[in-house]
């Protein structure tokens, strides 16, 4: 997927005002409208303009695009880094875009907003302030134990002269014990300001848990890939397993194999109900980097009746 430079498509500078962007779109839309244009690529150009305008006309989408696109050039291979929009603050409800109207590039950036309620193309005058949404990343330990964290959110704003700027604000947030991936923390009154005497909206923080190495998270369940020695798998062993809530003794049954899965009930994220911890064994071979180690491997090759490729017999029949 290639990066799409929406400013280049619209023919405007990156510091263009919102009025500049609106004027450029109107001019180009008239020029490339398929009903009037004689350009062979008018339909594709018109669609491309619509996609660019969908982003640049909205201060929030534009600010998010600017943050991600600062180090990219049109035509470059594009893969958005994980968590690129963490801490970015959006207002309102996502009103649905997509289908075949926009490119994969647009969908990759902004379809995620559908799950977050992250974008709004228009604002309505109302008494109650807008609810706002942001996504924050936390460590697995924070989910197990709970935590108090100071977070900085980036909120796009439109200045009086029509430029988009980003205002940062710092909040102290209590992360409840047992929260898991995708759940939201509600901060009452921390959303958009109300109109007149109206109350401020709320701020909803969607939590994304950053798993440690060799770990993945599924709801409240935690999956850990645990390296073990061959003799621990074959003969059985008890190993000390460090988890955020404290060390636990894990019994590895004799005769375990690569990929064997052990379940520790209730040792996952302490939600309601608590999740489980699934330990997946990763049998590691010791290196044969000394004469004695090589002699041991040689002895095993001669004394053990072991054919790791027995299951491949008959594949050529």
Give an overview of the whole structure.
With 317 residues, the protein is an alpha+beta fold. The chain has a domain at 215-298: Urease metallochaperone UreE, N-terminal domain (HSP40/DNAj peptide-binding domain, Sandwich), CATH 2.60.260.20. It is 26% helix and 26% strand. It is built from nine helices and twelve strands. The protein has helices at 6-10, 18-32, 42-56, 59-69, 104-110, 112-116, 140-145, 230-235, 291-303; strands at 90-91, 132-139, 147-158, 164-175, 184-187, 203-210, 215-218, 221-228, 237-243, 246-252, 261-264, 277-283. The strands form four sheets. A four-stranded mixed sheet has the order 1-2-6-5. It has a four-stranded mixed sheet with strand order 7-8-12-11. The protein has a two-stranded antiparallel sheet with strand order 3-4. α2 runs antiparallel to α3 (42-56). The two termini are 43 Å apart. Mean pLDDT is 82; it is low at 93-99 and 112-126.
| Major β-sheet profile | 4 strands, mixed
Strands side by side in the biggest sheet: 1-2-6-5
**Which of globular, elongated, flat, extended, rod-shaped describes the shape?**
flat
The overall average pLDDT, rounded, is 82
Assign the structural class, choosing from mainly alpha, mainly beta, alpha/beta, alpha+beta, or little secondary structure: alpha+beta
Please write the string of helix (H) and strand (E) elements.
HHHHEHHEHEEEEEEHEEEEH
* Topology-level CATH name of one domain: HSP40/DNAj peptide-binding domain
Query: Roughly what percent helix?
Result: 25-40%
CATH level-4 homologous superfamily of one domain = Urease metallochaperone UreE, N-terminal domain
Reported CATH architecture of one domain: Sandwich
